[in-house]
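User: structure tokens for NAD(P)H-nitrite reductase, please.
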Amino acid sequence: MNYVIIGNSIASVGCIESIRKIDEAGTITVIGDEAHQCYSRPLISYLLEGKTTKEKMVYRSPEFYEQNQVKLVLGKKATRIDSGEKHVILEDGATYPYDKLLVATGSCPFVPPMKNLEAVKNRFSFMKLDDANELEKSIAKDSRVLIIGAGLIGLKCAEGIYNRVKSITVVDLAKRVLPSILDEEGSSLVEKHLHEKGITCILGDSVSEFQDNDALLKSGTVVGFDIVVLAVGVRPNVSLVKDAGGATNRAILIDEQCKTSLEDIYSAGDCTEGVDFVSGERKVLAILPNAYMQGEIAGKNMAGESASFDKGMAMNAIGFFGLHIITAGSYIGEAIVIRSKAGYKRLFIQNGHLVGYILIGDMIDRAGIYTSLVRNKTDLSTIDFELISEQPMLMAFAKKDRVQKLGDAQ
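Assistant: Done. Predicted tokens:
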């Protein structure tokens, strides 16, 4: 069997490890457009902050590929899939035949139109290791940094460079920070925390034009800058599958076995759109654990076993300047809100089940209990949920449920 994987990503690692547990003899080729070994992208802000190193960012040991007999083709971009002839064609014209193919191409930055953006010399994205390396070369103690985007990427960039620049201004068209993962009260709490750290947030506004080292906002506000970081959002890389005739929506459509609509072609990670376990809706579930598990499931099916990925849901565990946030599931149904001096909790209940939550600050302890309730679709009438809402603890469960339903959540 000849396996080809496009994308040297977290999903590809899961795929490789699954294949090798089943098929020790088949050939595996990984094609990646970056020149680096697979690394954990969420760590690039910690690299700039000095909390980690490039060596510690690698997702597996340097010997991983050799041990698993993987042929690496790095720094090369796949430009086309011939699904009829079952070939992958690279930008340099090289072709790689496959019996089973995984597309794990991730996502790319979305850059909205802004007048004279191309004239801004020091402009950067913040998604890849190379982006972080280039940004690091340009920042200095007197740098004024303008970050366009108050989402996860933009705010992690702000944290990464915080102690290395003079000022940071964050501009976003949305009226609050982190709108994709937080409710209004949670966003307000985080924005206040950023303000206390000296980060300027200009929300409900956008850049209409760049003039030299000034950004002219639609409101008339002028923001001076030396460096611009574009962190508005991302778009899944769907073109390889779409151009080959595969079904796509916002992302590549996959079933529970991580199959695309094309024969012998699978997909995993941030480029895919699967079914959200909680809501039943099709969504892009762009988080690292889901990417690995999707790659793992794809690898099993590619190697001849039958496996399904049916527990995918939206989750985030992240922190900004010491304020930690954990979110999961869907924000629908009745809400239970609990506040403390240093934190905030919102639990979402629908049809007698916990379907999602937002935890901030000192409310994040033992979040695994809430996650287990969501994943197991636990009937809340069978437990002391009032106690768990206030203080998550296993004693609110019957002994058999503590063992069977929660496992390692202790």
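User: Anything notable?

Assistant: The mean pLDDT is 93.
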